[in-house]
Amino acid sequence: MQVFITGGSGLIGSAVVRELLDNGHSVLALARSDSSDAALRDAGAATVRGGLADLDAVRSGAAKADGVIHLAFSNDFSSPAALAQGIAEEGAALAAMGEEFVGSDRPLVTVSGTPWVPGRASTEADPLPLDGPVGGRGRSVMATLDLASRGVRSAAVRMPRTVHNNGDGGFAGLLTSIARQTGVSGYPGDGSQRWPAVHALDAAVLFRLVLENAPAGTAWHAVADDGDAVRDLATVIGRRLGLPVEAVPDETFGQLGPIFATDQPSSSAHTQQTLNWKPQHPSLLEDLENIQL
To answer: Which residues of 157-194 are buried (b: 16+ CB within 10 A; e: fewer)?
Structure first.
């Protein structure tokens, strides 16, 4: 299968590209910069130059593909306006790729976060939030899944708050970065809130399985660790960096403060059983031991 991928040079995307190539697929990747283009070509992928906002490039890549995996996002959380712009760009790109696939039964795999449900771990059956700071992403995902009624084998892989590899990535990576900046390995509230996690190499396997096998209109959870207490994550980060570990105000984490403070465990029992997905790489707490000093 020729697979068009957006976000193929990132932490998750680079792992997905390697997983696809190692399992007999060819990859055509959207490349926004010279450095991304070079990295993707070195990995063995062909490229289409352009960013997610370049709808002509996005349509061109999808038109040449037997399937799509969408991973790109601006990840600009510096202001509500910047976040809204990134969400709008992503929604337009997904709509453009979806239109290319209507009536073809080709797979279109998109990405979102796992939902959070008060008092328990979220499951694949729980709806995504459609309101709040990232509600627009949820609406884009639902619109993509609705393409199942128009002959697109659409599916969504819901990612936990931390996708990690070699001690870096995701929300835990942000905790580490903020600890380096402030001199304190901090956590919001009492630190008992739980974050799910997955190793990037395990997530890559799931993206391939969903691309190859998932029925249209379905959602899956790329969760290996159901939920680690943020205080425990901060403790490992503090020990590795030689910094004090203590509670800090939610404002320390900027626009993400309210999300950082939320208890949001998640389960992937249905995904593991149905798709025979078995995470095999180190847990987040184990991987944080690899933080670069």
So the answer is: bbbbbbbbbebbbbbbbbbbebbeeeebbbbbbebebb
